[in-house]
Design a protein that fits this description.
This protein is 67% helix and 2% strand. The protein is built from 15 helices and 2 strands.
Length: 362
Amino acid sequence: MLYHFLVPYSDQLQFLNVFRYLTFRTGGSIVTAMVVCFVFGPAFIRGLKNKQAEGQPIREDGPQSHIIEKQGTPTMGGFLILISMFIATLLWADLSNQYVWVVLLVTGGFGMIGFADDYQKVTSRSTKGVSGKARLLMEFAIAGIATWWITQISPSDAAGTLAIPFIKDFLVDLGWFFVPFGAFVIVGASNAVNLTDGLDGLAIVPVMIAAASFALIAYLVGNAVFADYLQVNFVRGTGELTVFCGALIGAGLGFLWFNAPPAMVFMGDTGSLSLGGAIGAISGATKHELVLAIIGGLFVLEAVSVIVQVASFKMTGKRVFRMAPIHHHYEELGWAESTIVIRFWIIAFILALIGLSTLKLR
């Protein structure tokens, strides 16, 4: 919004030229989202506590310590993240850029699905929310529309193609299959983050690390000079997603203030589904879907641990892990919650560095 209001006057007031620069507007979106969280967070959490007297329902089949330690903590904190992100993005981004609207569509759509899920859990005092089939159907519908939209606004030589990490100037043309593939990436990322969100602060920091990584990727991929130097595929317009990633980072930092152990609020499905979906959509727009599997490797590990656990139990009647997702396995081994969270943050940071190395190792 500021871009459209102020840039036209930059010829008369030269200092307004700073609003042309992605780096300046990204910094502004980080600060804006963080400030919104800090200012409205306390009142927002008080409101949630008033509405959710008993807090988020705790799984009885989960770690027993959670029943005591986390009882009464309100959920739906992801709504605070979304509000902060949307305000910052709408304020600082170039709103004529369609990639911004695609990612906002996924973020908002998945956020509403998560909100419905959280609301049903809270009102019914049950850990069962919206049915899994209905949730997946809605997620794939939104992700499919978003992926189709991306193919329509992508350069003709990149639309419907898949880039392979570590190999320069090589695209696999998926044709019509790109839409279901892209939808699968978005839905998979969304639910992987959702599975990771099981301990105080565990999901939000890796999400911010992934957002920072894709902020850099979007900036480089959307710049013809940098893309040519790094021999990555130039996708005009994706640089504007840097501003959105900045908003996500700022909102994440603000939310972490309240979500740090012991958490005052949980992000819930409202936050985890929407943030994971946003990262997945950005990876599709920037042609870095496979790199997402590296940068978001922690989320992949969490999701795979659940798949392995379920498959093993159904086929052999035995469990591979003491409890899934895998962060609960380490809780059952006696690791302190803070130890698990910080070590998983370190793993997420290392994987992000490996993922970013694909930009140069070609």
